[in-house]
Design goal:
The chain is globular and about 55 Å long. The protein is built from 9 helices and 10 strands. It is of the alpha/beta class. Bound molecules: (3E)-3-iminooxepin-2(3H)-one (2X7) and fe (ii) ion.
Length: about 300
């Protein structure tokens, strides 16, 4: 790992959605339940991310997941190794994953320091028996199935749900800035994973079997059009326009980005006006999932 005397940097950011179906469909040894495949276009999109990860050689992956919800404050995992069985509460028949991950606890401490210094309520999560949520695991697995890079899971404080969209998103902007400063102080090459689906209205009845791709389709044309609009803005680097329409997008499509990961990542990247790469888009039980990448610091490779 780089020395703390050397200034660290964010080498890439990924929009890395976490439907458990994608891990289920891949049949990795860690997942106790097996499938006949499915959702290939999205899984191929993640193959491009895996190639980027090989090239970028990050020393840590930070992931912000909406399924680690914390009521008071933004939490940073600060246990050197976390392992156990993670079961998706909604799709236990698809996701029963035996995980084992090394955590960059020093980076957690620096993130905590930086977050509290800008007035955010933050906490270090030090419970060694903590059960890691499926959102964190799915995004991390899909980006790096070898699990050979330390990680830093970050919780989703539910301020956008119990205060207002504006307060919630403002907190994510500050959390992103704090995260960037912590990475610089830590002296590591970091990748950020925003673990978010876009439009989030989904089917109320699951196909049988779940991987029957003849049943997979967009939930509504309006949702699809919203997803395309958001993706196009990101592809063109029109970040100011994106920020202006995000509240309406969140409200009209129940977009999972409301929980803050996308805003956190864009803020940490300095709201890049460079075009994002779209690796792929696809639906999972009707929700809209875009796999995207920002290389804002390519010269650091
Ligand atoms: O958590 C999720 C999700 N965000 C999208 C689709 C399907 C399942 O779980
Ligand atoms: Fe989700």
């Amino acid at each position: 790992m780089s020395s703390a005397n050397h200034k660290g940097s964010i080498v890439a950011g990924f929009l890395a959605p976490h439907p458990p179906h994608l891990v289920y469909a891949e049949n990795p040894p860690q997942n106790r339940v097996k499938s006949e495949g499915g959702w290939e276009p999205l899984r191929w999109a993640y193959e491009h991310c895996r190639e980027s990860m090989e090239r970028l050689k990050p020393e840590v992956i930070l992931v912000h997941s909406p399924h680690w919800t914390t009521i008071v404050g933004h939490h940073f995992a600060a246990v050197p190794e976390l392992s156990g069985l993670s079961v998706d509460p909604i799709f236990p028949h698809l996701f029963q994953y035996e995980y084992s991950m090394k955590v960059d606890t020093e980076l957690a401490r620096l993130c905590y320091e930086e977050a509290t210094s800008v007035g955010l309520n933050a906490k270090l999560m030090t419970n060694p028996k903590f059960r890691v949520d499926y959102g964190t695991i799915v995004s991390l697995h899909l980006l790096n199935p070898k699990w050979d890079i330390p990680v830093l899971p970050i919780s989703a404080n539910n301020s956008p749900y119990c205060t207002s969209l504006e307060v919630g998103q403002d907190q994510m902007v500050r959390l992103g800035e704090a995260t960037r400063k912590a990475i610089e102080r830590r002296g590591v090459r970091a990748v950020l994973a925003a673990s978010n689906t876009l439009s989030h209205l989904h089917f109320s009845k699951e196909p049988d079997p779940p991987e029957d791709m003849s049943q997979e389709h967009v939930q509504s044309s309006a949702q699809y059009r919203w997803d395309m609009r958001v993706i196009e803005l990101l592809r063109q680097g029109k970040i100011d326009e994106l920020r202006a329409v995000l509240p309406q997008f969140m409200t009209e499509t129940f977009a999972e980005v409301k929980s803050g990961a996308l805003m956190w990542m864009l803020s940490a990247l300095g709201f890049p006006k460079t075009p994002a790469k779209l690796h792929g888009y696809g639906t999972v039980i009707g929700t809209g999932n875009a796999v995207m990448e920002w290389n804002v610091n390519e010269e650091a490779v």
